[in-house]
């Protein structure tokens, strides 16, 4: 091995300027003098060849132009963890002593007698390091743990460490650092292309308190995740995006405390892979953005029933995928605890030209949903969506065997498969009446006018007024109209309405920016005015 090179140079991560790579070869190259490093670069644009030179293959690269040779003195092999911390937080030896006067040295704002200056500076540095709780040494070229036990002696109170985009070459190096941090709770080692153990022979207490772990862009496989997870007994959040994970395995004895799992930007082999992680008992949030899935199915139960899969799941992200069928949205209603869904940028989103209609269909199909694509679903919005859904597909329901008489109500299996919530909506709001199911008329202005009765419940002496209002009129404009009628400032008015078809149910018109049609108001309904 050439002088000055680390003994374990093969496989080591190196930096050369702003470029990162892995050493794949050390030695001579034909018709040249001296030692060369053969490097496979993370960015293939930095390379020149596939590891071969003048017909000789010195090392192999995944990309045909991902490799090149550099001299050892051009490679940065990195620094120890503690050196990086001191450099990042300004605690190096030369930065401790700011200025000296006579027999004293000033450290910070304190003047200390000029007795054993080196010792005092070291003590002061130790105190400052021990105060650090949240440490970030991102892009500080950390490659090893440093001297034995030096981290535990100087940084005893660390709880959160960001080690992303460094020169960590193996998981063992991460263990060597973490095992010296007794109360480590959060660790980010993303963007380090590391070697991970292939067997479970190692044990460590370094992660006994670890709650959050980020391993994005580390090239870890799911098999390696399960092996390493034996050392993460209380882990709650695991981030694994962009790792080329295609196949999952059932985590029978590990990850049982996990609440959040991020698998985004991994092209899963198929959607059945999700069934293998469906029994994680505490998983509340699953992020599957851009994983290539085209459908979702929970085969353990039929429509109208709740699946035993993902028993604790509350938040699901399936945006940027290939989902094109409404059947996948129907399946999501089987999840008993689902409250928040992100599903933007799927082919399904192109099936409806009007994004508001699309949103209402999803709301109506998933009964317990409270947040859709980061927007809260208000009670009035849910009610309007469900009433519209019940009306829009009422004709299909009748043609499929649906009937107002419960004894004659026998919709086909095909209809129930396409609209599994329809029977529930009929129970909730009543079966749609024949008048509601007449074909839609052209959208002329006349057809868009609503005939509404306006009442003031708190002033019975004031006679009800009948008004024709466009269904597109906002609540704010309705209040402006009422101001002219009643001479009461719109800011003081509180509006609600009673449906002519649902007696006793009063719905607040609580969003000034929404149109009347948002609340599914129909001709014949009564607007109630209070102040």
UniProtKB/TrEMBL annotation:
Gene: Tbce
Residues in Ubiquitin-like domain copies: 450-529
Quaternary structure and interacting proteins, as annotated: Supercomplex made of cofactors A to E. Cofactors A and D function by capturing and stabilizing tubulin in a quasi-native conformation. Cofactor E binds to the cofactor D-tubulin complex; interaction with cofactor C then causes the release of tubulin polypeptides that are committed to the native state. Cofactors B and E can form a heterodimer which binds to alpha-tubulin and enhances their ability to dissociate tubulin heterodimers. Interacts with TBCD.
Cited InterPro entries: CAP-Gly_dom_sf, CAP-Gly_domain, LRR_dom_sf, Ubiquitin-like_dom, Ubiquitin-like_domsf, Ubl_TBCE
Entry function: Tubulin-folding protein; involved in the second step of the tubulin folding pathway and in the regulation of tubulin heterodimer dissociation. Required for correct organization of microtubule cytoskeleton and mitotic splindle, and maintenance of the neuronal microtubule network.
Highest taxon of the lineage: Eukaryota
Pfam families registered for this protein in UniProt: CAP_GLY, Ubiquitin_2
Keywords, in A-Z order: Acetylation, Chaperone, Cytoplasm, Cytoskeleton, Leucine-rich repeat, Phosphoprotein, Repeat
Family statement: Belongs to the TBCE family.
GO cellular component terms listed in the entry, alphabetical order: cytoskeleton
Principal location class: cytoplasm
Residue runs in coiled coils: none
Domain (CAP-Gly): residue spans on this chain: 27-71
Protein name: Tubulin-specific chaperone E
GO BP of this protein: cytoskeleton organization
Compartment(s) of residence: Cytoplasm, Cytoskeleton
């Amino acid at each position: 091995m050439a002088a000055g090179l680390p003994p374990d140079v093969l496989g080591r991560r190196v930096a050369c300027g702003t470029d990162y790579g892995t050493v794949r070869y050390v030695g001579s190259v034909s018709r040249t003098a001296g030692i060369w490093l053969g490097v496979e670069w993370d960015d293939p644009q930095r390379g020149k060849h596939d590891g071969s030179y003048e017909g000789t293959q010195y090392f192999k690269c995944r990309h045909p132009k991902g490799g090149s040779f550099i001299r050892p003195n051009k490679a940065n092999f990195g620094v120890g963890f503690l050196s990086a911390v001191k450099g990042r937080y300004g605690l190096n030896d030369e930065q401790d002593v700011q200025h000296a006067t006579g027999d004293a040295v000033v450290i910070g704002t304190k003047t200390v007698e000029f007795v054993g200056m080196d010792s005092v500076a070291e003590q002061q540095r130790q105190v400052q390091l021990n105060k650090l709780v949240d440490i970030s040494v991102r892009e500080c070229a950390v490659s090893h743990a440093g001297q034995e036990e030096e981290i535990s002696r100087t940084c005893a109170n660390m709880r959160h460490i960001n080690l992303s985009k460094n020169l960590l070459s193996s998981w063992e190096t991460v263990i060597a650092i973490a095992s010296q941090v007794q109360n480590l709770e959060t660790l980010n080692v993303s963007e380090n292309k590391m070697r991970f153990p292939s067997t479970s022979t190692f044990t460590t207490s370094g992660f006994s308190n670890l709650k959050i772990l980020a391993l994005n862009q580390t090239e870890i496989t799911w098999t390696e995740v399960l092996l390493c997870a034996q050392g993460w007994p209380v882990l709650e959040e695991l981030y694994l995006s962009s790792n080329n994970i295609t196949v999952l395995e059932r985590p029978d004895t590990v990850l049982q405390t996990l609440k959040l799992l991020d698998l985004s930007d991994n092209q899963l082999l198929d959607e059945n892979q999700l069934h293998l992680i469906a029994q994680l008992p505490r998983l509340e949030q699953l992020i599957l953005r851009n994983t290539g899935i085209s459908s979702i199915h929970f085969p353990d139960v039929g429509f109208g029933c709740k699946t035993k899969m993902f028993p604790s799941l509350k938040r699901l992200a399936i945006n940027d995928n290939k989902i094109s069928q409404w059947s996948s949205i129907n399946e999501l209603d089987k999840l008993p605890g689902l409250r928040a869904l992100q599903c933007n940028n799927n082919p399904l989103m192109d099936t409806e030209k009007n994004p508001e209609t699309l949103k209402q269909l999803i709301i109506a199909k998933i009964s317990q949903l409270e947040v859709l694509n980061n927007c809260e679903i208000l009670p009035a919005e849910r009610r309007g969506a469900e009433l519209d859904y019940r009306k829009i597909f009422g004709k299909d329901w009748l043609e499929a065997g649906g009937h107002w008489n419960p004894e004659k109500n026998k919709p086909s299996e095909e209809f129930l498969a396409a609209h599994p919530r329809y029977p529930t909506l009929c129970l909730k709001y009543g079966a749609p009446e024949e008048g509601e199911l007449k074909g839609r008329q052209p959208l002329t202005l006349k057809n868009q006018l609503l005939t509404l009765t306006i009442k003031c419940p708190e002033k019975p002496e004031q006679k009800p007024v009948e008004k024709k209002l466009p269904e597109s009129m906002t609540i704010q404009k309705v209040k402006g109209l009422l101001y002219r009628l009643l001479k009461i400032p719109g800011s003081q008015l509180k509006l609600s309405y009673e449906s002519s078809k649902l007696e006793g149910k009063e719905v607040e018109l609580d969003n000034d920016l929404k149109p009347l049609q948002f609340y599914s108001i129909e001709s014949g309904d009564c607007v109630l005015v209070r102040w």
